[in-house]
Input
Amino acid sequence: MRRDEHRTPGNPVGDRAADQHEAQHRDHPRGEHDAELLDRLSRPATATELAAELGLSLGTVGRHLRILREAGLIVGLRDGHKVVYRLTVRGADLITYN
Output
């Protein structure tokens, strides 16, 4: 299966490498980009700001923000037309602990 193929009802396998990567990060959310994002989110920021400051694509930042949000480490709060991300207490504790 090509990397650019997506999981659909007719194609339940999807991109196994991406699925495995996501599963690893769900269990261990302190992957390289996750750690950078958590450290940077000591100050609230939008996904666009994070991408620019960390030199990552907006897609990469979005994927990692979703993983961190699902792990309960960050929260996104709407501010007009943008979403500002910030650490939760759990996320702040993780950074302080490490």
In short: Residues 58-70 form the longest helix (13 residues).
